Amino acid sequence: MKKILVAGMALLLFLGMAAVLFPQEKEFIIFHYWTAGGEKEAIDELFKIFQQANPGVKILENPVAGGGGANMLAVLMGNLESGNPPDTFQDHQGNQQKAFIDAGYLDTVNDIWNKTKFESRINPVWVKTLKFNGKVYSVPINAHRTNWLWHNIAILKDAGVKAPETYDELLAACKKVKAAKPDVWPLSLGTREKVWSTYLYDMCLLTTGGPDFYEKANTGQINFTTDATFRKSMDRYAALIPYIYPYHATKSWDEAGALIKSGEAAMYWMGDWILGYYLAIGMQPNKDFGVTAIPKNVWMGHADTFPLAKGAPHPKLAKYWIEMCTTNEAQKNFNLKKGSVTIVRDVPPSVYPDPFRQRSAKDLASLRGVIDGYHGGMMTAAFGDDMQDILTQFLTNGDVSSAIKEIAASAARNNIKTANDWFWK
Amino acid sequence: MKYSKAYGIAFLAPVVISVGIIYVMILWDLVSAFTIWEGMRATWKFAGIINFLNLLELRRFWVNVQNNFLWLIFFIVPTTLLGLILAYLFHGLRRAEKVFRQIFLYPMALAFIVTGALWAWMYDPGSGLINSLLRLLGVNTAKLGWIALPNVAIFCMIFSAFWQYVGFALVIYMGAIRGLSDAMVEAANIDGAGHFRILFQIIFPNVGHGTLICTTMLAITTMKVFDLVWIMTGGGPGIKTEVLPYMMYRMTYSQHNVGMGAAASVVILILAAAMVIPYSQWAIKKWVR
User: How many domains are there within chain B?
Assistant: First the structure.
């Protein structure tokens, strides 16, 4: 009797374990780090659409909190390397995605792109940074613009300054604001997360040499030590330093943005996600703050993408998700909540409630596009990480020659010229 | 109670296994430092000491070593000294000693992450506690950037660690001083020796074991400090406050260069061993009878 009982319990235990270990067909596993307010609502919109088409499927979100995704990436890397991939996960583009591709973690989705005629509906820059040797592995869901200059309207008016639209106007505005209002810092900056120092770097490259030079510089196709345009860009960056808020090392990106509201700073170079923050702290667009694009003939930004994991436990559901993200409805619902704009051109700019996103969508549909250095994946992981330290160090002393030397050394040590071959093919 | 070998092995097994895993990981780390990695994927291709050579070529590596040495000097010496002085001062007070001991020991209950977050807020040049208080007293704080100032940042950081660990040194020395015979000190008092002489010529030489424990633990802490740097400045401004463990983390997880991260960890191990082992041997010989 006892033996039967024990055998029965062992069987039950085994069945229980088996049930847990074998993937349920009714599950969808997705990794992301959109846990903050605004972000969570956005991805919930996608889940709504997904759930309607796939009722009875349980969505396992596996969100790992921690902005910027550093924590999620660590968990994800472990899972991918141990052969335990999710169905899809949140990724960027360019070199960030290439790292996954080289390690063999992704599968191609050319069939989905062809079926939905995706390539013809988007700005060519997305194709350039998502197509590797003719193969695509993911679908971008949102477009964040980063070449925005936000400013406090009252301060600029008091100083008699027009909102700048070029680098020269920006430098002149900084000088004028400093002269008219010595207590106000012309340009705000927060380098608690060091990555924002690369945003100003991208701006200087773009405005000095134009979009082609910008792409060459970030992918290591120039000789950093001898290139005259590069030196000019760094000189221009150095020229801004005396007008930048000096204690940026202690400010995060939103705290630095808040300096515009408190009147301690006049202007702020940041991506469009700060719009949600400004609205949340009670500032009124075009009354308290305004925004210009520098330069106004280029759309610079980056996208979040969903790639197809190789060996995904539920490939049909994964493919459904990816195809769903190419549709106008999914893109529109997601981006309305997220604060970015859709990748596809078919959604009219008028759906956005604020004038800045309307402009971003219009510009994305018509202007030349470039991807930003770090978040966009123009820089390789190692080079981009080095750049963060080199540039924050540069911000403390404005030493152009030493910075150029370090950048050249990092580029050589990390072999970025050959690593970026895929971009130029 | 009968000793049963089987039970002994059964109960020791979990501990031995977990410690064994740690040692296997250390071994794995040592091996990784000598191989090439592609991103996060191990290739197990033997590459000699190239990871170490790359490391030594980095200006960043030497800045980190310098910062670690600054930590060694400016963290260990003041903490030990103040711990000794305070232990001597509180030794005489009977009941108040317990109160003071608790007050100074409270910071030790905090994790470095909490201490770091706390002091980062206090040091904030705009709205931090320190500058706000100074402004109340009429001081112009425009130039007082604390941890935002490149040359002062690391000392501000070391000060927060010092604040946390003074209690530790205090408690170690209190225990050590209590073990001394009162007769020695009373004799010195009768002879008219001043406090300084008593402290440094009588007490200090006789609490050698306390000093050994205190400085060794503090030295190990300085070689390990990561979370304080992470939360307070992220190594900034620039790399002015970066230390080797932090660089090791960035190399491995942000730059996906596991080989160099492992090489950095080996360097940390060597530096720590080179400091702690000879020092302990010397100190044991000198101070512990």
Answer: 1
Average pLDDT of A300-316?
Answer: 93
Interface A-B: count of C-beta contacts within 8 A: 80
Residue B274: inside a domain:
yes
CB of B278 less than 8 A from some CB of A: no
Is B50 among the domain residues? Answer: no
- CB distance from B246 to chain A under 8 Å? no
Taking an 8 Å cut-off on Cβ atoms, the answer to whether B39 and A413 are in contact is no
- The residue among B213 and A7 whose pLDDT is bigger is B213
One of 3.10.180.10, 3.40.190.10, 3.40.50.300, 3.90.1150.10 is the CATH number of A26-142+304-345, namely 3.40.190.10
Nearest CA in chain A to B54: A413
Higher pLDDT, residue A2 or A372: A372
Whether A148-300+373-424 and A26-142+304-345 are alike in CATH topology: the answer is: yes
Q: How far is B38 from chain A (nearest CA, A)?
A: 8
- Using CA atoms, how far residue A272 sits from A139, A226, A332, in Å, is 21, 35, 16
Q: Which residues, listed in sequence order, are joined to residue A298 by a DSSP beta bridge?
A: A368
Mutate which: B61, B257, B258, vs A, most A CBs within 10 A: B257
Per-residue DSSP letters for A381-408?
HHHHHHHHHHHHHHHHH--HHHHHHHHH
Contact A208, A286 (CB under 8 A): no
> Which of A49-58, A413-422, B31-40, B110-119 shows the lowest per-residue confidence on average (mean pLDDT)?
B31-40
Cis amide prior to B237 (ω within 30 degrees): yes
Query: Which residues of A fall within a CB distance of 8 Å from B148?
Result: 246-250
What is the band of A67 on the pLDDT scale with cuts at 50, 70, 90? very low
- Does the ipTM exceed 0.85? no
A23 cis-preceded (ω within 30 degrees of 0): no
Provide the chain B residues 204-233 that lie in CB contact (below 8 A) with chain A: 233
User: Could you please report the per-residue DSSP string of A212-247?
Assistant: HHHHHHHTT-S-TTT-HHHHHHHHHHHHHGGGB-TT
Structural domain boundaries, residue B102: 59-287
Give me the tens of pLDDT residue by residue for chain B, a chain 289 residues long. Answer: 677 888 888 889 999 999 999 999 999 888 888 888 766 677 778 878 888 888 898 888 999 999 999 999 999 999 999 999 988 888 877 777 788 888 888 888 888 899 999 999 999 888 889 999 999 998 888 888 898 888 899 999 999 999 999 999 998 998 888 888 778 778 877 887 777 878 888 888 888 888 888 998 899 889 889 999 988 888 878 888 999 999 998 888 888 888 888 999 999 999 888 888 888 888 788 776 5
Q: Who among A249, A389, A397 is closest to B233 (CB)?
A: A249
Residues of B within 8 A of A381 (CB-CB) are: 39, 254-256
C-beta atoms of B39 and A389 within 8 A: no
CATH code of the domain made up of A148-300+373-424: 3.40.190.10
Assess if residue B192 is contained within a domain. Answer: yes
Is residue A148 left, alpha or beta, with left meaning phi > 0 and alpha meaning psi from -120 to 50? beta
Give pLDDT tens digits for A222-234: 999 999 999 999 9
Q: Is B143 on the interface with A (CB under 8 A)?
A: no
Answer yes or no: is B38 within a domain: no
Q: What is the CATH number of the domain that holds B200?
A: 1.10.3720.10
pLDDT value of residue A73: 76
**Are B150 and A413 a contacting pair at CB < 8 A?**
no
Query: Do the beta carbons of residue A102 and residue A318 sit within 8 Å?
Result: no
Domain extents in chain A: 26-142+304-345, 148-300+373-424
